[in-house]
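May I ask you to comment on the folded chain given beneath this request?
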Amino acid sequence: MHVELLAHTRRNPALTREQVAGMSDLATIFDGQGSYPENLVEYAGRVCYKSTHRMGTAPEFISARVREGHEDIIEHVVVTVRIRSSQEPLHWRTINRHCEVSDLGSHEWIVSGNTRVWLDLFRRGIALEAVPILKAVAPAVFSELPDGDASQQAMIAELRTKLAETAAAAPIFDLQSLLPSHTGPMRVTLLGFTQPVLDDPELLLHHGSATFFFEGISRACTHQLVRHRLASFSQESQRYCKYDVLDGDLELPVPALPKAKATNGQAMAAHFSPEQEQFIANVYARGFSCEALGEAYDAHPATIRSIVLRCGGQLRAHENSAPFFAEIDTPLKARVLGLIFADGAALAAEGEPLQTSITQHTDYKEWLERLGKLWGGHLVPGARESTVRLTIPGKQLVTMLTRLGSAPGKNLAANPPGLPEQLVPAFLLGYLEGDGHIGRHPDNPAITFTGTQEMVAWIRTQLHRALQVEAEDPVRQPLEACYQLTFGGDQVPRILEWLYQDAPFYYAHPARAARAIAWSPRLAD
């Protein structure tokens, strides 16, 4: 068998450190210490663990992930070879269905596979003649394989030199079309591609590949994408990433300003071209502030406001902004409302509403800070040691919460809210995060809700209606003058999956989320 390298995943030539500087953490891919295919693999793994800032700091990162079985990250590099004088590739597709095999006749074949496919074949003792080629492309992926004799090691070294020279001599492309693309909050970047030089266009279709990086994409959307196993996926893990200790908030980046199309001197002398001004007005209409746009586009906020008005837009008046709870019309608002119902307090003095507050252990301070940013809350020390309180001063909010069913004082006196059916799961999730309990004992799965008799009866009805689950009869807690409603057995994972479906873990109670994931591994995905 004679094996010849035709193509492997190479860097998008438009993707340079300078070009992507300031675009989230894209530039860190160039901090890797290996070949570009290896850097691509490490970057995929770093994205999963939210550790891209550590690119290139651990030489054994890739080999360690392969040993652990975290092999989806090595699927993003594809290698295409030509094989002559052999009939063996005829059967490879039946051994691993993720490789692509084309018969050219006369015992000649074109074979493509990602490095996970090739590693699987090598582990089975198949296609070992291709080991030097794959080791030259991504040595860290195949570190478990022996280096071979001196002649094979020399072959690998020679191949690496040729690959480096090939990478430096990049073909001519329309680089502008290969730059990262923005659509709303989402950015899509072509990280690499495989393009073998073949005469038959159909073969090009079967053996070409591309690796894209998606940012700002809805997890609900990715849940649909990953069902299509023809492609390969690596996704930031909600199980391993510590969202409860993230620094700062995860605001969407301001979209990059397109280059000016103006050619006459008068337009070129202006700060922004007409096309750019319309772009700025459109970005402002999507919710970005004048201050954020001014900082991103090197202009005073007053200039941004003038541009918006000149393009026919309307400025948002802060004093006219509707309060967060003026209308419960989103799952996130319903979730926070449930949290306040269960663990909050709408405080009043002599019948006069004063403020709303949520108290938690100081371990969850960062979580409360994230919630507070939603509607302008701030943190103060709690009444008890090791507690912190998120307060929202103002009579208006207390009045709104009371109208929604939340009673002054500890909200275990609250009545069920009147919410649309589609917002009930989010409300129940917030309620569970506030004053619920998810058992941790492996032999006794349980979820417990605490509240008034009316509230737990309403919760029981909602869960039975949605999932046909049954609970034990509510138990009255004499010292607290409230009731506990408990669901157990194999109902627990079903309830948790229903409650957390499409819910952003960024706003999740860290301890509750960790226990939910322990009971339902599907949530970790």
Summary: The two ends are 42 Å apart (CA to CA). The domain at 331-524 is CATH 3.10.28.10 (Endonuclease I-creI).
